[in-house]
Specification:
This is 4Fe-4S ferredoxin-type domain-containing protein. By secondary structure, the protein is α+β, with helices and mostly antiparallel strands. About 35% of the residues lie in helices and about 15% in strands. The protein folds into two domains: about 150 residues, no CATH class; about 70 residues, no CATH class.
Length: about 230
């Protein structure tokens, strides 16, 4: 393994606006998903984004695809992370793979993060404006640093504006009212959410400099509100 192994992976991902999001070595006796050859993986490296950095790269790729392409962002992520897997000898996996892989548990373990009241993991720098697009499963142990201990910003937030901005109170201590949210976004009064993104998410002051632009938020909201195909 090259001494610059992780740096080389970072450089390859950076060409698409993506970044490594931490990882870990599976413990002895821990059930790990299969790697590239079918044997259990030894290590996992998560891949994701900070802010909307991948958007220009994705947009250029999207212009060359059929207009009716299903799940374009997921497809693009699979292509890009799959190429990295081929190059570095790993199996690329996606959060939408079936059977489901425990991406949120992996993310919390890899970066030491905790969920916000909205369910999105709160990052000390990026706030709620980040995402995990996939992961690379290696059958070797790769040199991953242990996650540093980070403060959970939500613990120090007294006002909880993220719980007070939704017109239909979709988020509450009882959980996410999916049907109410969906009906509102699709309805006559849902235009602010459709064009500018979730009001609760935008109300959080953390990581404001990484907030997705309105067109990116509108894309994600349209994906959320579109009928299941």
């Amino acid at each position: 393994m090259s001494p610059r192994f992780l740096e080389d992976i970072s450089a390859a991902l950076a060409e698409h606006g993506l970044i490594p999001r931490g990882g870990f070595v599976f413990g002895a006796g821990e059930e790990a998903p299969p790697g590239r050859s079918g044997w259990p993986a030894s290590s996992v490296l998560l891949v994701g984004q900070a802010g909307a950095a991948p958007w220009p790269h994705f947009s250029r790729w999207r212009e060359r695809q059929p207009a009716d392409l299903k799940d374009p962002l997921d497809t693009w992520s699979r292509v890009v992370i799959g190429q990295a897997g081929q190059k570095f000898g790993a199996r690329a996996v996606s959060p939408s793979d079936r059977p489901w892989l425990p991406f949120q548990q992996w993310a919390m373990r890899a970066e030491g993060l905790k969920p916000s009241p909205l369910g999105i993991l709160m990052h000390p720098e990026y706030g709620l404006w980040h995402a995990y697009r996939g992961a690379l499963l290696f059958e070797i142990e790769i040199p991953i640093q242990e996650p540093r201990k980070v403060s959970h910003l939500c613990d120090a937030c007294v006002g909880k504006p993220c719980m007070k901005s939704c017109p239909v109170d979709a988020y509450s201590p009882g959980g996410f009212a999916y049907e109410a949210c969906l009906a509102h976004v699709r309805g006559a009064n849902g235009e602010p959410c459709r064009t500018g993104g979730c009001l609760d998410r935008n109300a959080c002051p953390a990581g404001a400099e990484y907030r997705y632009p309105a067109d990116v938020q509108a894309f994600h909201m349209a994906s959320f509100a579109s009928p299941v195909r």
